[in-house]
Specification:
Distance between the termini: 100 Å
Radius of gyration: 31 Å
CATH architecture of the largest domain: 3-Layer(aba) Sandwich
Strand order of the largest sheet: 10-7-11-12-14-13
Largest sheet: 6 strands, parallel
């Protein structure tokens, strides 16, 4: 029985090796076709990273063909994209046409993309390091759902990242590692392709020990896959210990150089360095040059037995695992080990040599099983069909629609006593709405999850957290409450909590929002994530924000306080360019309301957008400045708020001027408008709640006329059509003046744009608004200049 099992295991390993060779071939051929065979109309190099693919093929074969289960999720190393697409093709989830169009319009993407690829991509990757961090927060999101019974114990998946060792230079990985430690991370595997090469050169020697120490200190189990079965057997022979010691101490650059030069170079160098050890010389002499080269380069990350044994050990518990898999970059390709091989491509002669070596028939290059016997083809197809991962045909779920609050329901939370009376800030209005949501008993409120990088209280989320608690898998009581110490914050911690408290790392905030915003397709359960931070610090996590939007994660981002209006804090905390970030970021609707009721309406709209088929995420730029609230005569303004603008004071037919404002500078705009009416009684006052939505609608209308021959009128065209063409516009925003300066192009109105173009400083509002020309006097000066 034991011998039979051993024989079956050996046969399976042999089949896996054969399959792994064909995956390497298909990935290499896909890249070759894109660069050498497909028509090039622009002369640009297409690329595709054949060397990076070769170093990952064994690991990915072992993972996808044996270890991976349908509920597991993977972030694939960006440069291993062709290997991923080749494996997906074997599973029947990627078409041949898409492979042939690799890196072309409509083809398989250069880096795995949730939204652009048709095959089974769990997490988009491309910006190195982010695909690593997202798996940690996806595990946290899974724990959050599991605590609510939405993910059953038997359905808990592993969140796996395949990464290159050069990615370990990315700081966001360690920010995520610290947060993972705080939240008692589990069910996470990070598998490092440790080929000791980066884009430019070989990496520093002996770093693997440091990486292991770092991850062990964070509570991870570290598995180092350094030696293959063949090497371990050789090390047991006389002279093997000396050979192992030589490899252990060899500098990375020397090892890489000898790997490139091949068996004869290995023999020459080893014979010199081990000349005083006759056993070692005899061991080396027992191998032919080609076999010696293979012995020295078949490291643990290229040994299926070693990898599968490690994966099997790791599957016995849910502890986070950090695998350091030693590999050779470009193994089995003509430029293996060369320090310049990162962007290297095989030429036609070299790809033909690889084809011949692997037994692929010329003319049948796209058939991954070409040249194999009927029995081999049948066996390999059976191996693929039996893979645990092959069971689920569709792993991209659709979550049920949840009834979200109506604008009127949220408006009731911010309504002041006596219509139009009182002063409020948009940040305070946000807090009131969140406090009201926390009191709700409906399904929507139970699916809201909030998160913030240590600014929960100062961004007005405290009331929500007091009512709903902090999420953690291990319960912890509020000691201040138990000891009866007065505190405005009563934060109970446990599995029922709905707030994820993060450390001061904005990058982690956006990666967490990415993971929480993908629970619907990943786990079939919709959450409504809300993240808060200070507006100026969006820039610190901008790469991660872009990453979240790129894969269509859905969330509400609330950035507050903002602008020069954060007066006493000084220039380091005052934001300038964030409105332009909101305008330029795809997958994100950016709004800057001025009033509490606008904030409530936009929050209701944001919740709708989170689960709409054509929806996206929303960014609210809020302020701590309390201002008088307007009296509303009707409900027409609500639609304008969502569409991006409305006339707070409509212009007369013969108006010569209109003031356009956005956000917290509404009082200055109102003051200037009131003064302007003495000389220009027909002047208008336009409230812009979203320069982003307005601008996108305007450009879309223009494209429709140019490309479809359809006459579409955008919101801003309709609104500004109320002004004569010879009228002027003065725009006012607490941010970059370019945010609204484009409005003059809509109908050709002359325009003066006021805003921030230099760093601010500490002060009170009257002084700062005057110094930076954001006050009513500056608006009137700009009006006078237009009329002069």
């Amino acid at each position: 029985m034991a011998d039979g099992s051993l024989t079956a295991k050996r046969q399976e390993i042999a089949l896996l090796r054969r399959l792994e060779e064909r995956i390497l071939w298909l990935a290499s051929w896909t890249i070759h076709n894109a660069n050498h065979l497909r028509e090039s109309r622009d002369g640009l190099k297409v690329g595709g990273h054949q060397a990076s693919c070769a170093s990952m093929t064994t690991l990915m074969t072992a993972l996808y063909m044996k270890a991976l289960r349908p509920q597991d999720r993977v972030a694939v190393k960006p440069h291993a994209s062709p290997v991923f697409h080749a494996i997906q093709h074997l599973f029947g989830r990627q078409s041949l046409d898409k492979l042939k169009a690799f890196r072309a319009l409509g083809g398989a993407q250069s880096y795995p993309s949730r939204t652009k690829d048709v095959d089974d991509v769990d997490f988009s990757t491309g910006s190195v390091g982010l695909g690593v961090a997202v798996t940690a927060f996806a595990s946290l999101a899974q724990d959050y759902l599991a605590a609510r019974g939405s993910v059953k114990p038997e359905s808990m998946g592993r969140m796996i990242s395949l990464l290159g060792d050069a990615e370990l230079d990315e700081g966001n990985i360690y920010e995520a590692l610290i947060e993972a430690c705080k939240h008692d991370l589990r069910n996470t595997w990070w598998i490092v392709d440790y080929n000791r090469q980066s884009l430019d050169a070989t990496t520093k020697d002996r770093m693997f020990t440091r990486y292991g120490e770092i991850f062990e200190a964070a509570g991870w189990t570290v598995e180092t896959l350094k030696w293959s079965k063949r090497q371990r057997e050789a090390f047991e022979r006389p002279g093997g210990a000396a050979l192992k010691a030589w490899i252990e101490t060899a500098p990375n650059d020397l090892y890489s150089a000898l790997t490139y030069q091949g068996g004869a170079a290995w023999r020459e160098r080893l014979a010199t360095d081990l000349a005083e050890d006759p056993d070692a010389l005899a061991l080396i002499g027992a191998y032919k040059d080609v076999d010696l080269g293979e012995l020295m380069t078949e490291l643990g990350g290229h040994c299926l037995e070693t990898i599968l044994e490690a994966f099997e050990r790791a599957s016995r518990d849910d502890a986070p695992r950090f695998f350091i898999a030693y590999t050779v970059k470009g193994l089995r390709l003509p430029f293996q080990g060369h320090k310049d091989n990162h962007a290297g491509l095989m030429n036609p002669t070299q790809i033909a040599e690889l084809r011949e070596r692997l037994g692929v028939v010329e003319g049948e290059e796209w058939d991954a099983l070409s040249g194999l016997s009927s029995a081999e083809r049948t066996a390999l197809k059976g191996l693929v069909a039996r893979a645990p991962f092959a069971v689920a045909k569709d792993r991209n779920y659709t979550a049920a629609t949840v009834a979200t609050p109506t604008p009127d329901e949220l408006l009731s939370a911010v309504a002041a006593k006596g219509e139009g009376s009182g002063e409020q800030s948009t940040q305070a209005a946000f807090g009131k709405v969140m406090f009201d949501i926390a009191a709700r008993k409906d399904e929507f409120a139970g699916r809201v999850v909030t998160t913030s990088p240590d600014v929960t209280v100062s961004t007005n989320l405290g009331g929500f957290v007091n009512r709903r608690g902090v999420f953690h898998r291990r319960a912890h009581e509020d000691v201040f409450k138990r000891r009866r110490i007065p505190s405005a914050q009563v934060w109970s911690m446990g599995e029922t909590g709905q707030h994820v408290e993060l450390g001061i790392a904005e990058n982690n905030l956006f990666i967490a929002l990415a993971a929480l915003g993908l629970t619907a397709p990943l786990f079939g359960e919709r959450l409504f994530p809300i993240g808060t931070l200070y507006d100026p610090f969006i820039a610190r996590g901008l790469d991660a924000l872009n990453y979240a939007c790129y894969q269509d994660a859905r969330f509400l981002l609330v950035a507050t306080p903002s602008g020069l209006t954060l007066a006493p804090e000084g220039g380091a905390h005052q934001s300038i360019g964030s409105p332009l970030i909101g305008m330029s970021q795809p997958g994100l609707d950016a709004y800057e309301p001025a009033f509490a009721d606008e904030t409530a309406v936009l929050m209701a709209h944001a919740f709708e957008r989170i689960q709409a088929a054509d929806g996206c995420s929303t960014y609210l730029r809020l302020s701590t400045r309390s201002i008088a609230q307007p009296e509303r005569g009707d409900a027409a303004w609500k639609q304008g708020v969502v569409e991006g603008a409305y006339w707070l004071k409509p212009p007369a037919p013969d108006a010569r001027l209109a003031i356009v404002y956005s956000g917290a500078l509404a009082p200055e705009a109102l003051e200037a408008h009131a003064a302007l009416l003495e000389d220009e009684p027909g002047a208008g006052l336009l409230a812009v709640t979203s320069a982003d939505v307005l601008h996108r609608d305007w450009t879309a209308a223009g494209r429709s006329r140019w490309t479809l021959g359809e006459k579409q009128v955008s919101t801003v065209e309709r609104l500004l059509a109320d002004l004569p063409r010879e009228a002027g516009l003065v725009t006012l925003v607490d941010g970059a003046p370019a945010t609204l300066s484009w409005l003059g192009s809509v109908h050709g109105h002359r325009l003066r744009a006021l805003g921030l173009e230099t760093f601010g400083q500490s002060g009170d509002l009257p002084d700062l608004y005057s110094k930076y020309r954001l006050d009513a006097e500056a608006v009137l000066d700009a009006c006078a200049d237009l009329l002069a």
